[in-house]
Each structure stands twice: as structure tokens, then as C-alpha cells.
């Protein structure tokens, strides 16, 4: 059986019927899924605490509103990049072995670089929670 990287860093067996391409794609999806988990705490806070909580956060940390909207926008860009890369691989523009690493890198850049740039531009400090 082949091995796949899991979020728990414990190798898990997968059926031997997976091809190398399927295994490669699976590892790419796990990577993107782990990266996507960065947004889980904020989503849970919004869902559980509601509008009143968000208004309190924005009152205490005025620049947080700009930071969250920028992060959400680039998360949408990362999602679209993954869909475009999958379509490219399906249509034969490039093999999965080339598409998956490129799409993983693009998603990583779209998820982390804008956030870092926003934090730098906003100056960090007490205005951001």
C-alpha cells in the first residue's frame, strides 16, 4: 500500500489501487485542506458569536475589518486558482504532476502573502486583534 501525508503527520495506508497520479493529487488536496483550516477559527467565531461579537471586535480593533475582508478576498482567489488548475489538468494543458505543485504554491502565496502584507501595511499593534 502507498503512503499519504495526513494532517496528523502519521502516515496512513491507502488502497493499492490508487495510481501515482491519484496519490499525488490526494497529497495536494490534503495540503490545501490544511492551509484552508487557517480560516476555521474565524468562521467558527463568526458563526457562534454573531454580529454583536464582530461589532465589538471592530470597536476594539478598527483595522481588523480591513484585514478580514482582504483575507477573505484572497482566499476566494486561492479557491479559484485551484479550480482553474484542476480544469487545466483535466483538459490536458499540463499533467497533474506539474499542475498540483504549482497550484499548491499559488494557493499558499494567495493565502499568506496578502495577509502578511496587510499586517505590515496596517502596522500591526492594537488596531488588529
Task: Explain what this protein looks like in three dimensions.
The chain is 72% helix and 5% strand. It is built from 4 helices and 2 strands; from the N terminus they run E-E-H-H-H-H. The chain has helices spanning 20-36, 40-60, 64-91, 96-122; strands at 2-4, 12-14. The model has no long low-confidence stretch (mean pLDDT 76). The radius of gyration is 18 Å and the shape is elongated. It has a two-stranded antiparallel sheet with strand order 1-2. The longest helix has 28 residues, at 64-91.
Beta strand count: 2
* Helix run count: 4
Shape estimate: elongated
User: Which radius of gyration do the C-alpha atoms yield?
Assistant: 18 Å
Assembly type: single chain
Strand content: under 5%
Structural class: mainly alpha
How far the N terminus sits from the C terminus, by CA atoms, comes to: 45 Å
The topology string of helices and strands comes to EEHHHH
Quick tags:
129 residues; mainly alpha; 2 strands; 72% helix; elongated
Write the layout of secondary structure elements.
Layout (H helix, E strand, L loop, with lengths): L1 E3 L7 E3 L5 H17 L3 H21 L3 H28 L4 H27 L7
Antiparallel strand pairs: 1-2
Helix pairs in contact: 1-4, 3-4
Summarize the structure.
By secondary structure, the chain is mainly alpha-helical. It has 4 helices and 2 strands. It is 72% helix and 5% strand.
Amino acid at each position: 500500500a502507498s503512503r499519504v501525508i495526513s494532517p496528523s503527520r502519521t502516515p496512513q495506508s491507502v488502497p493499492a489501487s490508487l495510481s501515482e497520479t491519484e496519490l499525488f493529487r490526494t497529497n495536494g488536496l490534503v495540503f490545501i485542506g490544511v492551509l484552508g483550516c487557517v480560516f476555521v477559527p474565524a468562521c467558527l467565531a463568526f458563526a457562534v458569536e454573531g454580529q454583536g461579537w464582530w461589532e465589538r471586535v471592530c470597536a476594539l480593533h478598527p483595522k481588523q475589518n480591513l484585514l478580514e475582508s482582504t483575507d477573505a478576498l484572497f482566499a476566494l482567489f486561492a479557491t479559484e486558482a485551484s479550480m482553474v488548475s484542476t480544469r487545466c489538468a483535466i483538459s490536458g494543458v499540463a499533467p497533474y504532476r506539474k499542475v498540483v505543485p504549482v497550484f499548491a504554491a499559488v494557493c499558499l502565496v494567495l493565502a499568506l502573502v496578502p495577509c502578511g502584507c496587510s499586517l505590515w501595511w496596517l502596522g500591526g499593534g492594537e488596531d488588529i486583534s
